[in-house]
Amino acid sequence: MLPSVNVVNVWRSISSIVQSQFVRNVATVATGVFAAQVISLAFTPFLTRLYGPEAFGVVAAFVAVLTILNPTVTLGFSTAIVLPPNEEGAMAVARLSMFSTALMAPAAFVFIWVFEAHLARWTSLDSIPFILYLIPISLVFTALLAVAEQLAIREGLFKARAISKVSSTLLINIGKLAAGIFAPSGLVLIAITVVGFLINYFVLLARVPRREVFEVKRWVGARGVLEAAKTHRDFAFYRLPQSVINAAALGLPMLLLAAFFGAGTAGQYSLTSLVLGAPVMLLGKSVSDVFYPKITREISQRKQGAKKLLVRATIVSLLLAVGLFGPLAVVAPYLFPVVFGAEWIQAGLYAQWVAIWMAGVIASRPSVAAYPALGLQKHLLFYEVVVTAARVVALYMGARYWDDLTAIAAFSVINALGYFALIGLAFMRLRQP
Prior knowledge:
Distance between the termini: 38 Å
Strand content: under 5%
Low-confidence stretches: 1-5
Number of helices: 14
Shape: globular
Helix content: over 70%
Largest sheet: none
């Protein structure tokens, strides 16, 4: 009888997990992200044949610079919107985020003005360097979107956020396809990418209920800003540098490949990132967005419950990562030329190594989501400094003394090892009394 009792208990545990609000929220977010990624991937075989590696490489290098600067625009405070216990506290953090944007966007303009020649050379935009001045405008758009998304997460509006993501992704890809038919160029892709942030923002506001927290006028002002900055200063001191360093490390392959081997090689890598990044966006971000507030509450109440929750989430994430990226790593060199065109074979070779790295990203998402509540912001910053130094050395040495594939392979292995180290650090902290 004992085995049957065990089976019953296991079945009840599985049923309770499946029926939990957490799993339903993850499923909602995952469905939206999945649909958005399916739309993007469905358009990609047509876009790769219209634009080609050179155009993809130019826009990828532009986005790499934007990605590096993007975490600085709200000084990391937008991520803290979900933490305050009341609505007014959340509004104060939103106002703090927009105040930071008002300071940092002009600073980005000055940065680009000073380093325009260098940035244009690194991004292969020598012929159209003026396009770099779209970056400060993009930062404002992404800041508005970040505040709106974090408020939607706080309010539990996962369905509205998912629908807005799908709708905006469809509109943006239709724009890329239409423009590619008549005027395919990297410049066009960059312009549509910038406008896309604003489209995503407006579509999200159109989908959320008419609540006061989503009134943009409440995001402007000084009330509670100083107190919010003091309360959540660890996001600026630790999370912001960590985010910038991590973004720089992720954008570095694009910039170095463009600088060493040209925009075409950067374009090949950008396709690899797009295709393999789709499962990461689907599972990693979905789990992280829903898991973040839940693990924060668990840690503040009882650490034993938090440990069980983190163990379960990590095991599931690891199994999903292996199941997704294992087969993809094997077939990628043969699949990419068939799906995206014969000139994209190098992207498939990159995918074999990038798959190892992406598996580590998904497996580590629950642990990284727990870091703020575990008080590990400072450790995360130290980790990023050390791992990024290793990333830079591996990527630069591979590109400088060997070839592009060796550089990507070394970079991917270092990334994978780093993400699994993050998992270990989170569990070490939870084991402490």
